[in-house]
Amino acid sequence: MEENTSSNPVPEQQPGPAPKLEAAPVPVPPAVCLNTRLWLKVVAALYALSLFAAAAVISKADAARKVKPGDMDLSKFTGLVQSKKDAVAVIPLYGVITQGSSSRSWEHGSQQIAKRIRAMSEKKEVKAILLDINTPGGSVGAVQEIYSAILRAKRETKKPFVARFGDVSASGGYYVASACDLIVAQPGTITGSIGVIFSVSNFEGLMKKVGMKNEAIKSGKFKDIGSPTRDMTPEERKILQGMIDDSYEQFVAAVADGRQMPLEEVKKLADGRIYTGRQALGNHLVDKLGDLRDALDAAGELGKIGKNPRVLTDADPFENLMSLMDSKLQLFGTKAVTDALELGPRLEYRWYGR
Amino acid sequence: MDNFNTLEAVIDRPEMLADSRLPANFGQTGLLGYVLGTLGFFTFLRMLSAVPPGVMSFMMVLFFVLAANFLFAAIMHLFMELTGVKGSASRLFLAFGYSDFLLTLLVPAGFFAKLDYLNAFFGFCLCFAAVLYARVMLVRRLYPVSSNKAALSVGLPYAAFMGLAFFGFIYSIAWLVWLVI
Taking CB atoms and an 8 Å limit, are B5 and A31 in contact across chains? Predict the structure, then answer.
């Protein structure tokens, strides 16, 4: 009760709370003061009236914003204000193509790219999809995942796909592009490198020097094929060559199918060599030369929305932030550990000249 | 009209808040206060194009208001209990709904703000101050405490969360700078 003895005590008439507060409610007695009731009614009426007026103001403000979207650039807030105007979706495909982790949505692995292709192609306002490719390729499985995602999207939505080559679009990058309806390259783009590679390091000599020995207990003689701790046997080389040849045949078939070229003609070009964009145009590996603007115009025309189309990107601020964080955290050494773990042999549609 | 009667009774005889016998529809009217107050707040924000339209958007704001008030009432009650003052937390939460009736004033405030007769932020601050004042008065009725202690208990959670938000803001700015550099 010391609170009541403070400098500003509660008025006398205010009783302290009873220890038991869960008593049954009592009916409210008739109003003791007509004035209060009158005021409450006036306020309620004014509130209802002001709600109607506010609704009119809101609808007018919304209408004005739709008429004049240029007053304020809201294109960045795509989540809040989504225009349903026809557009060309742009999906970037940068860097080495790897599987990526499905739990890390900000990574640009093949799973995330395939998911984006599906999501973009399912949007009604998207009339064509442009793949902005700048990659030397990557692992076979990852490249084929993106390739099949494009084919599926084309089959299910009938929307055209355009590939645009930037600095480099070789090997796996070209594999992906071959699924597109149109390929636009810069004259100086490095492309081609149609082929497969399987490289494995041999640390046997190094391990002998440092006194380290590896022992493998295996169920079959080929179980440790591609091991970096010993020389490759001729039989293993033959098996691996068979795998390479099979993957190569898949690559050539994909290019022949996508580019509608005879298989033999593709094989002549597919000896692993690289081409400039202009050379590729001469060999019918690309359809036209141009920059990103030209590629967008071509996509707009294929999508029947004309040149200079509206561009839709699926840039997610959260994913961008996570990607930025991830790249910064790699400074603490996680990148070095990841790279070390990725030293194992892999079958790749990749150009190593970069 | 029951809610009208209850509201009228609470305004005319606020001392009944501390009675063992509450007026009929006390809880219902308190919740109605939250809904109407939030509707006023939401309309105000919509007039300023600060929130997206739609029922879901309103429900989000309503749930936020209810959750925030529930938390604040709990903190205030805890503060009171820790300082040896007895009262009812549920009654405090419902009483805050009565103070939220004042947020309906945001609708005309927003209207005048659109007409450039009133600064929107000033209007909001005015309504918020009125709500805080009403809450201090309600706390005084529900707990046997002085005005100073009632003001302290009402201001405490707001101050704490503002401090936390400010700290979070400063830290996020420093963190973004670290990310970019």
Answer: yes
